[in-house]
Amino acid sequence: MEQRATANASSLLSSALVLTLFGCVGPRVKPEAAPPSRPADREVPAAGSPSAEGDSSAVGEPVAGVALPPVQPDPQAASRQMAEMIGRLTEAEGAPLIAAYAESNGVDGAAKILVRLEPELRSKLIRELQQSNPDDVAEYMEALAEAAVAAKLSSERLREAANQVIDEWHAAAARGDRDGYLRSMAPDARFLGTDSTERWDLTQFTSYVNEHFEPGNGWTFQPDERILQLSTSGTVAWFDERLASESYGELRGTGVLERIGEAWRVAHYSMTFTVPNDVAADVVDAVGRSAQ
Questions:
Q1: 3-state SS of the chain: helix, strand, coil percent to 5?
Q2: Looking at the whole model, is its pTM more than 0.70?
Q3: 157-291 placed in CATH 1.10.3720.10
């Protein structure tokens, strides 16, 4: 009984995914061509099942315990949704969906799904496709390689742009460029300075910058040894870096960038002193005495 219930749930999920697939991205049908007929071997859903009651299962309703995402006309969003859904399936369940997607949207479209999957599942899916679609595997592999290269180039460009924004932000501070410095920050940005009282939202930080910046005279912290990472969506980056200051020596900066539209903005930044372990106790005592 348990095995039958699991199989039915898996079948229902697969059917719902197919409905979602062809609801998200329509097949490439020429204007003069007739609409594709329903495959003869397609299972007709039972009355009362999610698939039988209109299109509710294809627009975000929970199916077999999995909430399907809403329909997205954007091809990038569609491929991301399909990758997320296929990531929940076995290779035997996912391979037919990949093949169906390729049939309707091209091999390059299917490759953009494959490149988003975990490497282990991607390898299993390709092996499954080698058995079920041996004539198409070469195309899949070629398109997958091209998609991987495109994804890597896109990631590198985003990383370069993010690093450039951080560098220009520090440079604007060094030359006392208030407008340029604040323009590089997100509307809801926060800045944490080295003093415990220096915990500002953007409005508070703007007042502080206006008090201390003059044309040609701000504060200079030279960044070095930055490590920056991107989220898989490419909309968030986080980093840490060393900072060199003539007044304070070596400091550490950690921050978060948010991509708003096509531009990176500093959403969070924290600046701290680096304290060697062998003098940490003395520093703690000094801080304690200062707080008294």
A1: 50, 20, 30
A2: no
A3: no
